[in-house]
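FAQ

Q: What does a record look like?
A: Structure on top, sequence underneath. For example:
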């Protein structure tokens, strides 16, 4: 794949300071390792433990898979760039990274919306929960999330492929993304920029509406519960999801909706770093530390491992 005179790009990263680069490398390596380990643990527990064979953990299993895919699409490459001081990335590899990071990110928003609907059915329609959220329905919802993500990213990604890059190939970022690519293009980028903003707004509006409506009905139902203990238990089943939703939406809105953030490249890069490293690392802990079933399943798996190793 070749465009104009540019066949490779140079990812400038976060800093040129060697000492800071070492700190960033150690930080990213640790967070990436924790993220992959934590999310793989959730996937394994949900797959192995019979007590976790419920729609909520099925969605959580898929969410963990998305987190691993998202971070693996960008963090290992950045670690390689720092370790080898080789910041060059080919045109093909750059756009492949754009495709997979955007696909995983957008799909994640739709999955969070599906998870909020699952919590709505569990709390507002408990007697019909098993019937409504059958395994077939859950599988269809997951497929729809991936298809929606694909449909959202295809228009801006296709337009990005038509951009012409002449002499400038310096991407002021640590990963390939549509926004920094648009900044160095020498062709007209107005339509591409508008399409990116439109797709971002569409994704946020569709998914956030679903989340807000679901939790509006959830809160309305919980407030009708007669005892404080029942209310506390109901809220605890949603708290982890609400924390993850708050972190995900706030960071995304900051990048794509705040005009000043688009101009402040450094802030944009730092927030992107938080999205790709901190959030995927925190999510497994947010879901497990507040969940007795997951903690019990983890302890049981350790006991089984110890018993098998002693035989």
């Amino acid at each position: 794949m070749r465009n104009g005179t540019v066949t490779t790009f140079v990812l400038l990263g976060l800093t040129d300071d060697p000492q800071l680069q070492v700190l960033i490398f150690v930080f990213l390596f640790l967070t990436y390792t924790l993220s992959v380990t934590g999310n793989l643990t959730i996937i394994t527990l949900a797959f192995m433990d019979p007590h976790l064979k419920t729609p909520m953990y099925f969605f959580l299993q898929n969410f963990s898979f998305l987190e691993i895919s998202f971070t693996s699409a960008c963090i290992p490459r950045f670690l390689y760039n720092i370790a080898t001081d080789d910041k060059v990335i080919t045109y093909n590899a750059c756009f492949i990274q754009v495709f997979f990071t955007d696909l995983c990110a957008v799909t994640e928003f739709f999955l969070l919306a599906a998870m909020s609907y699952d919590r709505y059915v569990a709390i507002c329609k408990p007697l019909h929960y098993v019937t409504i959220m059958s395994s077939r329905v859950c599988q269809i919802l997951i497929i729809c999330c991936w298809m929606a993500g694909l449909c959202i990213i295809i228009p801006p990604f296709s337009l990005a492929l038509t951009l012409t890059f002449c002499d400038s190939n310096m991407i002021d970022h640590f990963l390939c993304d549509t926004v920094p690519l648009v900044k160095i293009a020498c062709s007209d980028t107005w339509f591409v920029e508008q399409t990116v903003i439109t797709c971002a707004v569409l994704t946020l509006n569709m998914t956030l509406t679903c989340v807000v409506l679901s939790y509006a009905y959830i809160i309305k139902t919980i407030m009708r519960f007669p005892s404080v203990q029942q209310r506390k238990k109901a809220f605890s089943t949603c708290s982890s999801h609400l924390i993850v939703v708050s972190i995900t939406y706030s960071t995304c809105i900051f990048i794509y909706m705040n005009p000043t953030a688009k101009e402040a490249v450094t802030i944009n890069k730092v927030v992107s770093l938080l999205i790709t490293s901190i959030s995927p690392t925190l999510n497994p802990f947010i879901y497990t530390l507040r969940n007795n079933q997951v903690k019990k399943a983890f302890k049981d798996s350790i006991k089984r491992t110890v018993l098998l190793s002693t035989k």
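Q: Is there anything notable about this one?
A: The beta strands are 8-11, 88-90, 170-171.
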